[in-house]
Structures are given as structure tokens and as C-alpha cells.
């Protein structure tokens, strides 16, 4: 009881301090407040803002990015002291001035206010939310902490966490409505609802789910989390102070894993790594939590992640892999078995990947101050107490993975499911006669009350015998067997009949059979597909000890005919697969999930948890890109497509994966452009001639964004080379990793593609002074995100407009742009557009080049078009007859010889 009281008092103290700090965090509290205020006053007309719109601002987060020397300040709009939900702008301060401002403030707020008085209590808001989401009626709701219009309520029996409620304004149908903003983490862990309830009518105005279900398969499985009951102790541990004179200690830890850049068992083998933790990101190793020498945990738990199994899917705290005092996590791995057999190896790989995601991206600015995931922040800023809770082999669903990201100071949750086996099982092997070989057979269904057992990985080998129960249908085995002496020690063959399977198997087991082969009824097609007859349900007493399988009629009748002909047949019953696959061995999937946490914490600042809930947000795209970046190898090619989650999805190493196309710079492989993000975009036709459209806008919008980032990555590598050192490398891959991370910090809350593009351009300006502006523009313009592209309203998915134009040559940032010319000449003298192109390509010149020969060559060097013309003003080239792909356009005359890469859509 004393321990519980201590935890409660500690929690109350933390909440009170947090709320007090929150209420005082006005704009003037920052050393940059006056700078930001001055900037907004000077530029308010540019953003269509009035003085009243920026008269009441406060800072939600502020931190310095060491790599760029930029201080990121996140400023929220208020009206008369009440926060406007997600009216959150990003401000970058460098050299004492506003270097970049990403506006997300609402203009003319006074004209939009609908009411200023709440008639609905916060308790009623919780109750309305519970009814809306079919939760239980809240019980014993008590206020734990209060600060102004912000409350913390007890969980009411409907939430795993206490329920925060804050009075806010919400923009709804162009009206600012007074509302209660609250979050409820459901007891079944499937949702972490973030909800705005109208403070006058009680209606649910809007909601989003902090749980991101990645929908890798057709099933939209939900995310679940464990309870946080032990975190009271964790919060006390975070008071351990960081020792400025710490000494990095090699703890001798070893992990047998699929090491990056290996993506999965398809891509390479395991290796035993010693002391893989990074000295900068994890100075005390991966098993520390108190900032002193020596590991606090000898299991797959530490400061950055706690990896544990949840096979039962019951949201309880599961078993972790145990490394002993020596931290030796070297476990055998044989994938030719059910995943439960290699659980420790799986959890070790899950632990490893979460830690390297933490350590690698720390070097690119995802550190404590910016809201990364650590239990103890070692005095480096941020709140701490938010290490990743990672569930491996979670039994609550299949074929998916999830990640939930609450605001900083609350632990995110990664959930890794198993993936269903592909292919048909062949658990029956005939070892002799002309029937020798593997036979497709059904493995009995399992479930509550089903005592029928399927084959195990321990083979049962014996001769086969046809049963006889002494009746006219004796081979159905519905009665006690009269040939028990023959059945003893044999595998019994039984025909399907009119009595329960459990009776048949019971009679065979009573007669001493060591296994059972059930033969199905005949069907019109003799379909060998086992799916139609897997439901071998029933109860036995005693529980069966012998395995059973179910073969189709055609195979079964051959076996029966041979037995009637007195042919001695020997067989084996064994579970030889195919087996479910473990998502925790797909490093790309783990990186993808962790990536959701990075993009959510960096967009809008670590205190925001709902900035990536607009429809055009690119969260799935960043997550795919995170996985792609960490699994690149020195010999990779930009044109060769790369699929996502091919191991988990049961494909070969060169499989397409779970996206509409592979990631490739080759438009013949991946020709998607910005226009494809519109919901009504037609993708093409399937094999039956049916029109194919987006069926999952969130993931496919992300796919288009990741396609652009992948092109950008290879453009950087082409310029700067590739460096396999993911932590401290200097290659093009490292450079693009840095600007994408910086772009996440610079963009506003609720970003669209244009916001993301502009943030990356600005990140390059801040980091290099704009050395790669041309390169960045060329990549984005080639995919339809050119200078005139419009994202429209970022909450809409039907108003995007693509554009393939570069900015004007007069733009100072583009003064050093180069082309593919082989001779020196002024590239501003001509322009080739649009690119990519559908049918007609235009060449526009600023002077008369005289007679030239224009040729188009495909990627195999074959000339597919040639034309002689006078190049003056504007000419057009019709390429409508060319197939989709990449071509080289050559313009050859007396005064120029230039090549341009052309993409035919």
C-alpha cells in the first residue's frame, strides 16, 4: 500500500509541475520570443494574419539541433488563453534570426469563434467519448490534477492511462468551436483515441488514433499495448543524474542477429555482434537505465526498448530473451519450425533493431531534446520515461505490424505479428512404393475445446493400415475396431463418414494406432486444397496423444487401393511446414514501424501527437524510406526495384512487396508521380480488365512520397557517393538522411507534399548554404512536385495539382545548376519540358541555334526517333508512340551538343 501511495504522490507531483510549466510557457518566456514576435508582425500580411491572430501565442517545444546549429521553436496559437488545436507553426532560428517559418496559424480567428462558454463538463466529455467508441461506462472518475482549463482524470476503468482533458478551440467547418480535447487508451490496447468533443453540444467534432496500423496485408489489424503498471518505478529511476565525467564502458554484450544492412533471412545470414551499442547515442550500452556502470537488465530490456513476447495476445507483460550476467544473446535459429521454437532469437533481433534505429538516427538529430525514445535522458533535455515497448510474436492477429506514438513522456508501442505461411502443408510423406513422395494434407484446426492434435516437428513413422470396425462401412472407423491387432503401432487410414472425427480418432488410438490419416469425401474437382476441410473439431477423453492429418479423396483412394492390394506402405507424419514467418526478422518492417515514431515526434515538436493526421500526410512514406536507407548496400543499383516486406510477405528476394510497385528511379519500374495521390486517380487495369484505383490512400500517398525520397537518395549518391557507415559516414546517403530529418523538424503541423518539399529545400540551405538546391528541385520536379505544384488543402485528397517545371533560372539558389550537356554552352539558352512527358515534348530556346538534329535513344542505346529542324523559338517533338520509360534526348548542331534525360509516362 505504501508503494502505491508513493507512486500516486509522485505521479501527482509530476503532473502538477508539468501543468504549471505548461501554463507559463508563453512566447515571451523564450529568448527567441521577441525575434519571433517581430518576424510575425512584419510578415503577418504575407500569411493573411491579423494582429489579433498572433497576439496570444505560446511555445510548446524548443530545442537545438546540433548538426545544423538551428533552434527549432514550435508555436501554438491561442484565443484568450485557450489553445487552438493543431494551430501549430514551426519556426527555425539561426544566427539570431528567423531563418525559416512554416505557417499553420488560422487567420481571422475572432471572426470564426462560435462560443466562449462551455456548458458541457469535462466528465461529460469523457462519458460521451466512451459511448461513441462503445467503451464501458466510466466508473469513479476523479480529478488528479488541475491547471486552468486542463485536467487529469483517473482512468475510469475505460483507459490504461489516466485521462487528460483540456479546453481548446477546434476549427470545424471554418468555425472555431470550443471543445474538450482528451485521449483514451482503450483497455484492449487496440486504440489510443485522441478526441475533440464540442463543449456546447457534446458532439464528437473530430478524432484520430495515435495507434498507426500499417495495413501491410488486406486486414486492417489494430494495435495493442501492455498496461503501464510498472512504469511508476521507471519514473523514479529517471531521477538518476547524468554524470558529466562518464566513461563509456564496453559491457561485453553479444547478439546473434541479422545485422544491417541485411534486411531479412532472404537477404543474408546472421552474425554475432559484440558491443554494437553506439558510444554517443547509448553511452552506457543497451541494458542501462540509471546512467551508472553496469547493466540493470540481463534480458532484452534497457534504456531504449523493452522487447518481450505476447504470444497470448493478452496485453500482459511477457517473457523476454535472457542473456545471463554476461549479456550473451546468442541463440540458435532454425526457421523450419513454428516460430515459438526460436522465440529468443526473434526477440533478440527485435531488441537489436530497435536499438540501432535509436542509435543511428540519434546522429541525425533524433535525440533527447527532440523527443526520442529513452527511459533515462541522462540530463540531455526532454522528458524521458518513454522507451519503446516492443511486442514480438504477438498472438492477437496476423500479417501486420503497428506503432503507437503518444506525446513525449509516454512510451510508444511496437507490435510485431506473425505472418501466415504461404503454400500448402505436406505433413504426410509416403516412404516407399510407387506412391512415394510428399502429400498435401490438412492440419487439424485448433481452438477452444479441440483436443485433436496435428503433427509436430517430431516425425512419427510407421506402416499404414486400413481400419475395420466390423460394419458395412467399416473403413469409416465409427465403432471399436475389429482389426485392432493390425492397427497396433501403425498409422491408421480412415475414410470420412457419418460420425464425428473425434470418435474415429478415439477408436484408432484405443486400438494402439500411432497416427491417423483421414481421407476426405469425393468432390467434383478432386480439389487438393486443404482449406475446405480443416475443421476437424471435437473433444476427447482422454486427450489425444497421436497426430492426425486429412488428405483429399484422390490421394486417399490411391493409398486405400494399394492397402487393399496388400502393398506394404510406410509413411511419416511430421510438421515440415510451411511455417508462419516472424515479422521480427524483417528489419525493414521494424525500421518502418520505428520510423512512425520518428516522424510523429519531429513534426510539430515532441509534445504534439496529432500533427500527422491530415489526409495528405506522408507518414507511411517516411517509414518506408527509413527501412530502405538502412538496408542499402554498396553494390545496389538505383534502377533495380526494391520491394518492402518481401520476407514477411512470403515473397522471393526480388518480390514486389506490399506497395503498388517497387521503389526504383526507373520510370519503367515505378512511374508514379504526384498526381497519383488524388483519390480518384486510375492506376490501370488488373488481369481481368477491371479499373484499379487507390484502395488505401494513407499508405499509397506515403508510397508516392517515399518514391520521391528514394529518387532523391540516389541523386545524392550519384553526386557524393555511397558510404556504408550509417552512423558517421559522409556519403550521399548520409547527407540525404540528414536533410530529410531536418525537413521533418522544419515542416508545419499537418504537412502536405509541398510543405515537405519546401522543408527539405530549406534544410539544404541551412546545412550547406544551398549547394544541392538544383539537385533537389530536379528530383521533385521529375515526379510532378515542381515549382507550380499545389497541394491544395492538406486534409483533402482530391485537389492536388502536379507540375514538372523547375523554378526560373533567375532564382539565385539555382545559379549553379548543371545539365547533361557534353559541350560547354549556356544552359539557360534552351529548356526541355514537360518532363516526364505524355505525348508532346517541347524545346524552347532563347536564341536561334540554326539547324539541329534531334534524336531520341532508349536505355539500350537504340535510336527510336530522329528529326532535323530549325531550333529557334519553340519546337515540338511527338513521342506518343514511344513506350513508357527513360530516354536520352540529344540536340546536335553547330553551336551545341547536349543530352537531356527524358521520362516518358
UniProtKB/TrEMBL annotation:
The chain positions of domain Secretion system C-terminal sorting read: 832-903
Q: Which SUPFAM superfamilies match?
A: Metalloproteases ('zincins'), catalytic domain (SSF55486), PA domain (SSF52025)
Signal peptide location:
1-23
Q: Which residues form the PA domain?
A: 460-559
Name the needed cofactors: Zn(2+)
Domain annotation FTP: ranges: 56-105
Cellular localization per UniProt: Secreted
Which Gene3D superfamilies does the entry link to? 2.60.40.3080, 3.10.170.10, 3.50.30.30, Neutral Protease Domain 2 (1.10.390.10)
Q: What is its main location?
A: secreted
| Keyword entries, A-Z | Hydrolase, Metal-binding, Metalloprotease, Protease, Secreted, Signal, Zinc, Zymogen
User: Could you name the domain of life of the organism this protein comes from?
Assistant: Bacteria
The protein's matches in Pfam families, at most eight in alphabetical order, are given as: FTP, PA, Peptidase_M36, Por_Secre_tail
Residues folding into a coiled coil are none
Q: Which family does it belong to?
A: Belongs to the peptidase M36 family.
Name recorded for this polypeptide:
T9SS-dependent M36 family metallopeptidase
Which species does this protein come from? Answer: Corallibacter vietnamensis
Q: What is the lineage of its organism?
A: Bacteria, Pseudomonadati, Bacteroidota, Flavobacteriia, Flavobacteriales
